[in-house]
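Reopening closed ticket. The problem is back. First fold of the pair:
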Amino acid sequence: MEIAPFLADITTLEVDAIVNAANTALQGGSGVDGAIHREAGPELVRASRALAPCPTGEARTTPAFDLDPPVRFVIHTVGPIWRMHEPDEADRLLASCYRTSLAEADRVGARSVAFPAISTGVYGFPPDRAAHLAVTTLRATETQVARVLLAAYDEETLRLYEAALLNPS
């Protein structure tokens, strides 16, 4: 699988599926969750709420609704809130977000997927730790997905992804 970081609004990337850093109620929120819901339109809220609750570390899939093609799916995953877990448990839950999102992508036949920096916003996961975990988990997970884009919302996140890709250990 090809893994590439991009400085981009995740809703503008040309992939089969985008991953949403969601809350357990799958009702939309702030950050990337809010951006995806704004672009996909009101049907996304109705469809995602019907799949709630989504426990931390798991993923659910909806159509992409008003997102521009080729995006066909939104994969909603709930990352850990850093302060609510011991570090090892938070790492396990964040890794599970990447694995279950890839499993959902496989289930719906998505061959390209864009991920945001899950849990690094209001959930407070340390960005350097999250970038490293994302890369190592993606590389270790068997999947039919051929291309993964890591959507960085700022230059610092982009640098962290690039460093993790160069030095994954």
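Second fold of the pair, where the issue appears:
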Amino acid sequence: MEKTSQTNSTLRNLSVLFITLMLFWVMLVNSLAPDSLLVGALVSLSVALLYRDGLSFFTEFRATPAAFVAGTLYYAYFLRMLVQSNLRLALIVLSPNLPVKPGIIKVRTKLKSRMGRLMLANSITLTPGTLSVELDGESLYVHCVTIGSLDTERATAEIAAGFEQYLEVMYG
């Protein structure tokens, strides 16, 4: 029974990746000519077979109504954090005394899925003033231009908790 479940999961990952790659191929070449579709299918199938365990954004996504709502809220939250950190970093750069206190802090994530952790690390990196340096299990090491707290729990609450609340619903 478990082997059947694993086979279905692999087949699903393979299919999702193949379809995603084919869609990108069609958009890239802007043609539905049979020869173009054949080349796209061969290349997409080759890549999908190389990465049969999944390389797609959707392979670990929980396709539930709550996950789609969380996805929308996640992107709204991300944009808000993006604007806030841009303004905060601009104030630091424009300040005459340049109040920086750089360092690397450890953030602990409760996310279980690979894609959820990857999305968290990327969200932190894309937010100005922070850079995800390493992702090791449940620990994420983040370089900050100005460190707020060296305490792992407080740093997690300040940096990751906002993103995690949505990513946990989307990916687990």
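Update: turned out to be a display glitch only; the data is intact. The first helix runs from residue 2 to 29. The mean pLDDT is 86. Please close again.
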